[in-house]
Amino acid sequence: MNKEIGNSKLKNGYAHVLLVDDEEYLVKLWKRVIESRGYKVTSYTSGLEALEDFRDRPDDFDIVITDQSMPEITGFELAKEILKIRSDVKLILCSGYLGDIDLNNEMNKKIDVFLQKPFDKNTLIEAIESVLIDR
Protein backbone atom coordinates (compact mmCIF):
# COMPACT_ATOMS: atom_id res chain seq x y z
CA MET A 1 0.00 0.00 0.00
CA ASN A 2 1.45 3.38 -0.96
CA LYS A 3 1.19 6.23 1.48
CA GLU A 4 1.67 9.95 1.31
CA ILE A 5 3.60 11.36 4.21
CA GLY A 6 1.77 13.90 6.34
CA ASN A 7 2.43 15.67 9.60
CA SER A 8 2.29 12.82 12.10
CA LYS A 9 3.79 12.77 15.56
CA LEU A 10 7.31 11.32 15.42
CA LYS A 11 8.27 8.56 17.82
CA ASN A 12 11.59 6.92 18.56
CA GLY A 13 11.75 3.28 17.68
CA TYR A 14 13.97 0.36 16.85
CA ALA A 15 14.40 -1.27 13.49
CA HIS A 16 17.30 -2.20 11.25
CA VAL A 17 17.42 -0.05 8.12
CA LEU A 18 19.30 -0.93 4.94
CA LEU A 19 20.13 2.44 3.36
CA VAL A 20 21.34 2.69 -0.25
CA ASP A 21 22.30 5.77 -2.28
CA ASP A 22 25.23 6.33 -4.60
CA GLU A 23 25.73 9.84 -3.16
CA GLU A 24 28.06 9.35 -0.19
CA TYR A 25 27.17 12.65 1.46
CA LEU A 26 23.45 11.73 1.44
CA VAL A 27 24.18 8.31 2.92
CA LYS A 28 26.17 9.92 5.74
CA LEU A 29 23.49 12.55 6.38
CA TRP A 30 20.53 10.18 6.29
CA LYS A 31 22.36 7.58 8.38
CA ARG A 32 23.05 10.16 11.08
CA VAL A 33 19.39 11.32 11.05
CA ILE A 34 17.99 7.80 11.19
CA GLU A 35 20.38 6.65 13.92
CA SER A 36 19.52 9.73 16.00
CA ARG A 37 15.98 8.34 16.21
CA GLY A 38 17.14 5.02 17.67
CA TYR A 39 17.30 2.91 14.52
CA LYS A 40 20.21 0.71 13.47
CA VAL A 41 21.48 1.55 9.97
CA THR A 42 23.61 -0.43 7.54
CA SER A 43 24.47 1.81 4.60
CA TYR A 44 25.93 1.40 1.13
CA THR A 45 26.83 3.59 -1.81
CA SER A 46 26.63 0.51 -4.05
CA GLY A 47 23.31 -1.14 -4.78
CA LEU A 48 25.04 -4.39 -5.69
CA GLU A 49 26.91 -4.51 -2.37
CA ALA A 50 23.66 -3.78 -0.53
CA LEU A 51 21.93 -6.61 -2.40
CA GLU A 52 24.77 -9.00 -1.55
CA ASP A 53 24.46 -8.09 2.15
CA PHE A 54 20.69 -8.53 2.02
CA ARG A 55 21.13 -11.96 0.40
CA ASP A 56 23.55 -12.97 3.17
CA ARG A 57 21.24 -11.96 6.01
CA PRO A 58 17.71 -11.15 4.79
CA ASP A 59 16.09 -11.50 8.19
CA ASP A 60 18.33 -8.84 9.73
CA PHE A 61 16.59 -5.94 7.96
CA ASP A 62 13.19 -4.43 8.66
CA ILE A 63 13.19 -1.74 6.01
CA VAL A 64 15.11 -0.84 2.85
CA ILE A 65 15.53 2.77 1.76
CA THR A 66 16.99 3.15 -1.70
CA ASP A 67 17.59 5.83 -4.27
CA GLN A 68 16.15 5.16 -7.72
CA SER A 69 19.01 6.51 -9.87
CA MET A 70 22.19 4.60 -9.19
CA PRO A 71 24.86 3.51 -11.68
CA GLU A 72 25.07 -0.27 -11.04
CA ILE A 73 21.44 -1.10 -10.35
CA THR A 74 18.36 1.11 -10.11
CA GLY A 75 16.29 1.34 -6.95
CA PHE A 76 13.43 -0.49 -8.70
CA GLU A 77 15.76 -3.32 -9.75
CA LEU A 78 17.19 -3.52 -6.24
CA ALA A 79 13.70 -3.59 -4.72
CA LYS A 80 12.60 -6.29 -7.15
CA GLU A 81 15.57 -8.51 -6.25
CA ILE A 82 15.08 -7.91 -2.52
CA LEU A 83 11.40 -8.84 -2.76
CA LYS A 84 12.35 -12.12 -4.47
CA ILE A 85 14.38 -12.94 -1.36
CA ARG A 86 11.93 -11.65 1.23
CA SER A 87 8.51 -10.46 0.13
CA ASP A 88 7.51 -8.85 3.43
CA VAL A 89 10.37 -6.34 3.75
CA LYS A 90 9.30 -2.68 3.83
CA LEU A 91 10.54 -0.49 0.97
CA ILE A 92 11.02 3.26 0.59
CA LEU A 93 12.12 4.52 -2.82
CA CYS A 94 13.67 7.98 -3.16
CA SER A 95 14.00 9.90 -6.40
CA GLY A 96 14.56 13.41 -7.64
CA TYR A 97 11.77 12.87 -10.15
CA LEU A 98 8.71 10.77 -9.41
CA GLY A 99 6.70 11.90 -12.44
CA ASP A 100 7.34 8.69 -14.37
CA ILE A 101 6.11 6.39 -11.62
CA ASP A 102 2.95 4.52 -12.53
CA LEU A 103 1.24 3.64 -9.26
CA ASN A 104 -0.81 0.97 -11.06
CA ASN A 105 2.33 -0.93 -12.06
CA GLU A 106 2.55 -4.17 -10.03
CA MET A 107 6.15 -3.51 -8.93
CA ASN A 108 5.33 0.03 -7.86
CA LYS A 109 2.45 -1.26 -5.74
CA LYS A 110 5.03 -3.16 -3.67
CA ILE A 111 6.89 0.02 -2.73
CA ASP A 112 5.53 1.23 0.60
CA VAL A 113 6.53 4.90 0.27
CA PHE A 114 7.87 7.07 -2.53
CA LEU A 115 9.90 10.10 -1.39
CA GLN A 116 10.72 12.88 -3.79
CA LYS A 117 14.14 14.46 -3.26
CA PRO A 118 14.95 16.77 -1.72
CA PHE A 119 13.16 16.05 1.53
CA ASP A 120 13.80 17.06 5.11
CA LYS A 121 14.72 14.87 8.06
CA ASN A 122 11.18 14.86 9.48
CA THR A 123 9.78 13.57 6.19
CA LEU A 124 12.35 10.78 6.18
CA ILE A 125 11.57 9.73 9.74
CA GLU A 126 7.82 9.94 9.12
CA ALA A 127 8.22 7.67 6.10
CA ILE A 128 10.16 5.11 8.12
CA GLU A 129 7.69 5.16 10.99
CA SER A 130 4.65 5.00 8.72
CA VAL A 131 5.80 1.72 7.17
CA LEU A 132 6.97 0.22 10.45
CA ILE A 133 3.57 0.88 12.05
CA ASP A 134 2.00 -1.32 9.37
CA ARG A 135 4.27 -4.28 10.18
UniProtKB/TrEMBL annotation:
<feature type="modified residue" description="4-aspartylphosphate">
    <location>
        <position position="67"/>
    </location>
</feature>
<dbReference type="InterPro" id="IPR050595">
    <property type="entry name" value="Bact_response_regulator"/>
</dbReference>
<comment type="function">
    <text>May play the central regulatory role in sporulation. It may be an element of the effector pathway responsible for the activation of sporulation genes in response to nutritional stress. Spo0A may act in concert with spo0H (a sigma factor) to control the expression of some genes that are critical to the sporulation process.</text>
</comment>
<dbReference type="GO" id="GO:0000160">
    <property type="term" value="P:phosphorelay signal transduction system"/>
</dbReference>
<keyword id="KW-0597">Phosphoprotein</keyword>
<dbReference type="Pfam" id="PF00072">
    <property type="entry name" value="Response_reg"/>
</dbReference>
<feature type="domain" description="Response regulatory">
    <location>
        <begin position="16"/>
        <end position="132"/>
    </location>
</feature>
<dbReference type="InterPro" id="IPR001789">
    <property type="entry name" value="Sig_transdc_resp-reg_receiver"/>
</dbReference>
<protein>
    <recommendedName>
        <fullName>Stage 0 sporulation protein A homolog</fullName>
    </recommendedName>
</protein>
<dbReference type="InterPro" id="IPR011006">
    <property type="entry name" value="CheY-like_superfamily"/>
</dbReference>
